[in-house]
Amino acid sequence: xxxMKWIETFLVAAKHENxxxxxxxxxLSQPTVxxxxxxxxxxxxxxxxxxxxxxxxLTEAGRRxxxxxxxxxxxxxxxxxxxxxxxxxxxxxxxxxxAPYIASAILPRFLSSFLHKYPKIxxxxxxxxxxxxxxxxxxxxxxxGLSRMPVSHAICKSILQDSVILAAPPSSExxxxxxxxxxxxxxxxxxxxxxxxxxxxxxxxxKGVKTMVVNQVEITKRFIEEGLGMSFLPxxxxxxxxxxxxxxxxxxxxxxxPVSNIYVAYxxxxxxxxxxxxxxxxxxxxxx
Length: 288
Description:
Blueprint lengths: L3 H13 L2 H8 L3 H15 L4 E4 L2 E4 L1 H28 L4 E7 L1 H6 L1 H11 L3 E7 L5 H7 L4 E4 L7 E14 L8 H7 L2 E3 L6 H11 L5 E3 L3 H9 L5 E4 H9 L4 E3 L8 E8 L4 H14 L4
Parallel strand pairs: 3-4, 3-5, 7-8
Antiparallel strand pairs: 1-2, 5-11, 6-9, 6-10, 6-11
């Protein structure tokens, strides 16, 4: 009977074509690696490696078997996870691909409520960049996407419109905008959608403004708190820090600021997907 460990060993050996390295990566002895490969070859009646001195090379049969072996391993562990979920009392599963900011700012409070309301649904969270969510949905690795930019090749709608504010270090609210833009660097590119619109207008209005690329929202907030710069951020991102006096929301009227949207996207309209989206929309709208 075929052992899944033989196939896992085969895949690592096929990738590196080196039994010694395979043994190191799998924490197995080299004779054990050799035995796994021989068992698999004997079971299937074909050679996957040819040996030349101390070197091994994949045969044509080995190359052809690699994608099938990968599917076997993936299917096996999917099955193991499904059984483990069943043992824990879960009856359904939903995988959510979510942008980092949404994962840290919104999901914790929402998931606490959702899991309490739907204890039989297992939620898997995959944190990826907004621009990668379309691929996650298209490949089937995710059922739902939560993004800060529109998602292509999917059913996509905005579930939250958030005003954008100028977030500056504490005690900045009485400073003039001219002074602020010459005192502080502008921390940019922390949002995937609106900086191409904002930045040229700022550079035209405030000649010589210095910028710093900080592509993570949480890091941007920390930099602002420490006086390292200021940025245009969705209000929900800094609402807590503004209330605590750690960040100032500076009035800005030089030009209209855009809104920041949170989008939900999906490709298959299943019962669990619609339940998740409807519950999330109610949570955002403040409906219990």
